Each structure stands twice: as structure tokens, then as C-alpha cells.
Amino acid sequence: MLLLTALVLSLTASPQDDPRAEIVNLRRYTHPNFTRVVIDIGKLREYTFGELRDPGRIYIDVLQAKLNPILQGQSYPVKAGYISQIRVSQKTTSTVRLVVDVDFSRIQSYRVYHLFDPYRLVVDIYPHGASPAPAQAQVPAGKPPRPGDKVQSAVKRQVDPNDPNLNGTSLARQLGLGVRTVVIDPGHGGPRPGSIGKSGLQEKEVNLAIALALRKLLRDAGIDAILTRESDVDVGLDDRTVIANQKRADLFVSIHANAHRDRKRGGVETFFLNISPDPSVIELAAAENATSTKNIGEMKSILEKIVQNNKIQESYDLASAIQKNLVKALARDLPAVQNLGVKGGPFWVLIGGEMPSVLVEVSHLSNAKEEARLKTAKYRDLAARGIYDGIMEYIHSLGKG
Ligand SMILES: [Zn+2]
């Protein structure tokens, strides 16, 4: 799989436009009251974080990032009784992991957050007996989660599926249960065309064609595949996940085609529900969210719902499998198709689902070359095939979890 990822990267990116942000620096300071670790990233990147036990550690995964070889496998001792060392490594081709080895019995709380100009991630760790940390967004360390303690819950759920101590993944994964029902959501419809290409091709039509082809592939494989719309009608964003919940779907896949004001930009990206610091993701989400009756003033509640969503890790895994297979399939017809990666984004349509949920942007309608491809049955079938392959890879991974 590593070889494949490397191959895809080499097909889509020359060294000078490697989409990964290079991490070249890690800093740490021990103050009387707390220890601060800073990773300098420079470019906006998604990250997740969580706790692992035996031995105790706090980890942060920076997505779409690569480690400068100088830092690979480095560890840094810390002169504080509650932290033994800090380590950093390239966890996968596109993920850099920072680990802080801590003694949870000796720390009171910690915070993981980002700062801008330049973009950097910060971890502050407060030992017992220190002055209290700033009240917002701190995570009480080593205590059982309390009902309503949203920050704690969110962090708890950012688990590493490969860690034997995991306690946050779904029952389905732990028991290796199969996926029976997939709800496929063709974006937009009826009076809402979604994005429109220069030649007039409407996103709603592309989305539906791919969704119908995907339904056939899934049904042929014995999976119950249900569409949120089967014709050119509009369905409210909230209603789409209501359908998925009513059908007790195991997975929710929303299909879209991208538009970007830079008409040269092209490629494929897959989203899971998360907060994003990336302005272009926020712009895309605003466009996709426009059919919702919600307004921007409700951003606060979307953030709370994201924090409550307990399927972030699984949605990320599903998005990764779909993204990889979709790029691979489309490259058969469009060899230079760009792999824009897996990202978090605040998409309304992903909020209500009680199952792992992703939104796929299969290509750009705003890019003339991709629009021409999106008109063809061949490219649509390849997109459906790629998404199907990704879903099947994810399902097979459940048995091994
Ligand atoms: Zn759309």
C-alpha cells in the first residue's frame, strides 16, 4: 500500500509541488507552570490528537505533512518530571506524528491548539499543583470523561485504530461486523444545480449519474445501497442524513463535483466532518452548505456538533480509502489527475449522520479538462468504480480492526 501511495504521489506531484507541508522544526520550553511544545508547519494543515495509555502519551497527527529527514525518529528529553520525552516521526506517507510521553498521574490538564502567522501547532501541558490553565479548551488529563464534557469526549474519540488500548472505535469495528447498508447521496438536485461548468454541465446531473452507477456496483456485491434521491429533485441537507439514519445505514457517502475560482485548479478531494483552518476548504463548505436553511451565525452550533460527533476517526478512514481508490481509478482516463488528499471540513450534510460519513468531490467542474471528462460515461463509471473500491477496502479493513 505504501508503494501504491508513493506511486500516486509521483504521478500527481513533482517534488516542487509536493502537497505535503514540510516540518523542519520542533521547539519546547519548560516553564515553572507548564511545558510547551511547538511544531512549526508554515502551511495550514489538518490535525487530530488524542491520548494513549501504557505507557501514557499524548499524540498529534499532522495530515498532509512530511518530516524533514533531519527530524525523522528524533526524540528530545524534557527536564520535567511529568514528561519523559518528545518524539516525532513520519507515521505514514502523508501523516507526521508527534508524541509526548507523559505521566498522566502527574498532569492536571493539557491543551492542543493552532496559531497563525506562521501556522504552528502548540501543546501546553500543565502538571498538578501548577496555576490553573486557561479555562477554555483544556483537557483534564487522566480522568474519566464526564457527561457533557465535550472537549474531553472529542479528544477521547480521536483514537489510533492500530493501538491495542483503543476504547473509542465503534462496536462494528471491534466485532468485525460487516457493512450491510450504504446510503449514497447525490448532491443538489431540482432547482439547485450545484456548481456549473463553463460549457453548462450541471453538478447535480454528474452526481446523480455517478451515484446510480455506484448503487449498481454495491448491489451486485450484495450490499443494500440506497440513494437519497433517484431523480432530479431537491432534498434538504438535513433530510439526507435523516434518510440514512432511518434506513440504519452503516455508511453515508455524499457525491459532489468541485468548483474553484482558480479554473486551473483540478483534482480529487474527500472530506470528513471536522473543523478546518484552511480558507479554501471553508469557501468550498460555504458553497456546498448554501442549500441549507442554516446561516453562518449558526457556526457555533456546527462546531459543537462536530465535537460531539463520535465517528471522526472512522469517517477519516473511510475517506482515506475512497480518496486513494478514486484517484487510482480516474487516473486510468486522466493520468494527471491531482490527489488533493483527505481533509476535514464543516459540511452541513455530514452533521446528522449516526454512521461514518464522507463527502467526495470527484473532480472540478470549474476546470475545463475535468469538465470535459465529467461529461463522459467512461469517466463517471470510473468515478463510481473508484468510490466502490474505496468502500470495499474500508469494509474489509473492519474485519482486521
Ligand atoms: Zn456540490
Number of helices: 10
Radius of gyration: 21 Å
What small molecules does this complex bind? zinc ion
Q: Can you write the helix and strand succession as a string? A: HEEEEEEEEEEEEHHEHEHEEHHHEEHH
Overall geometry comes to: elongated
Largest sheet: 6 strands, mixed
Q: How would you describe the overall organization of this protein?
A:
- Helix content is 30%, strand content 29%.
- The chain has helices spanning 2-12, 150-157, 171-175, 203-220, 237-246, 279-288, 299-308, 312-330, 368-374, 377-400; strands spanning 21-23, 25-30, 35-42, 47-52, 57-63, 65-67, 75-80, 83-92, 95-102, 107-115, 119-127, 139-140, 181-186, 224-227, 251-258, 268-273, 339-345, 357-364.
- The chain has a 6-stranded mixed β-sheet, sandwiched between helices. A 5-stranded antiparallel β-sheet has the order 2-3-11-10-12.
- The protein binds zinc ion.
